Amino acid sequence: MAGVTGLNSPEDFMRLAKVAVGECETIRARMTPAHGQVPSGTRALEQLRDLDRISNTICGVIDAAEFARNVHADPAFREAAEETFDALSGYIQDLNTDSSLHAVLQSMTSCDASMAGFTEEQRRTATLLQSEFERDGIHLPAQERAAIAALQGEILRLETAFNTNISAPDAGGVVEVPLDAATCSAVLRGARDPRIRRQVLRSQNAACAQANAKVLEDLVDARQRLASSLGFDSFAHRSAVDKMLQSPDEVLAFLEDLSSSVKGKARDELQQLQDLKTEVEGEAAGPVQPWDLHFYMGHAKARRYRLDGSAISSYFTLDGCVAGLAKLCEGLFGIRLEERALAEGEAWDGGAARAAGAVAVRKLALSHPTKGDLGTVYLDLGARPGKFVHAAHYTIRCGVLYQRPIVALVASFGLPEASHGQRLLSHGELETLLHEFGHALHSLLSRTEFQHASGTRAPVDWVEVPSHLLEYFAWDERCLGLLSGHHATREPLPPDVARALRASKGMFAGLETQQQVLFASVDQQLFGRRSSDAASVESVVNSAQQKFRATLPGEGGPAGAWHCRFAHFTGYGAGYYSYLYDRVLAANIWQKRFAAEPLSREAGERFWRSILAHGGARDPHHMLSDMLGGDKPSPDCLLREWGVE
User: Fold this and answer.
1) What radius of gyration do the chain's Cα atoms show?
2) Which of 269, 431, 436, 449 is catalytic?
3) Which of 238, 284, 293, 635 is deepest in the core (most CB within 10 A)?
């Protein structure tokens, strides 16, 4: 399956897992007896490589299991992958709490001679590995480690409860409108009656408020206690250890700067919506409210640009978009992207799925005239029962100096059109495809010495930069000509439509950015508070919203207890700002290197050489500086993309 040697049946998962654990135990046994010695020279480097071999060996199985448990059409494969994933997760936890392995690293990083003899990547990998060990308290006495383990268990239970409450069905009452995200979004965008929109938004935000208010308070408290036990001022300080922005103060300064930059645009946009609401509902309509936002944004865009989503989709066939990716690779990097036949058992979508008309799995090979074979990307872009429904990039095998990477792009774009048999993408789906392809390029084009630093194994406030950068190609008129072709005539998207799409991109971007700044600010303040700060979650949220009263509708934010259903608090605690930060960095790269000539080979090769090739093996600040020629990134580049000078 998916190019993984020996993975042909569900039973192979556990067999491969046992083989991997055996190999890792052999490596661990030869490392730990000498952990009290101070390694130097080639011995230190060999120990570092041994640690990475352990990681690569386990990831070779657990990454395939993670992939299969989410996408495989065969329930038996999914069940076996789930079992294997759980078993190897437990083994990884055992490795992460091995004080002998930590002692090897500690001896290595404390030896000036060893570190001086390392390359930048070797030093960075050793330091990051040690930091990851110590973030869980392995360097502390046994009693303190036990307390930290108990705290982490408590945090995991709270995170699970928070997410479960968000997705749980309503208890009691007659359900007239389901409160899932997709349904509520459709109502808020399309319902003309403001009373319906108001009721849906308030009900959605109230649905789990009672259950999650206490859970969130407890989660904030537990994370703070964990951070304090590990010697950090706050959970946000702990989170910042391996980030580009190294402290909560830096994060809040960035958010304040970005908010100030878009404040004028957001005010103008809010007034535009107010004028439109008054025109539609009459003078007695009152001010714009949170439940009006998406309805009138869509109304204003449709009136101004007259973009027909269905007509636009007719130019974006799935086959044409994939062919467009190949053209981008050739133009930017000189890379060939060629489809290859799938061997028996290599696909995971099942013959029944293909027989039913679903989009089949495809295999694409990347190659370069001088660098040779670069790796393989599988495309699994059709919807089917039992499959992960969102778009995602999976690394099945990391790319390092001694092995070629294997990745998969997964989405649920649905069935082909009955009238002509071709799958059409919306423009938003094309942007999503490019976003995920940016992650794939990061994995496919990195060539690091260590698997631990390969591809997307990079700081969370850096790793989205390539994917955000690739999104720009979905909005540029010159690139849309390569990515489009009418399903009947093969004609590219008309230039006037491409220009209208581009112009619509920045409409209401000020309001949307202010909304994201609010979310990121609350996230940072909740998990950045210290033990002495007794402010409640509700008071933090209310205080943050007061700052946005002039640039967001209502009371400066969404109606009701939105924070009780903000799932990013669990997955990206103290890191939600990364979404905005990486957008700013990507805008700077686009403006500096690609805006004038998006298919510039010089710019593409610089992107590969300065960023993609290094994965997470270099300090992102250095990679960014190389890409920008030493220029400092600024939010102004993002504003220029929205037409604000």
Assistant:
1) 25
2) 436
3) 293
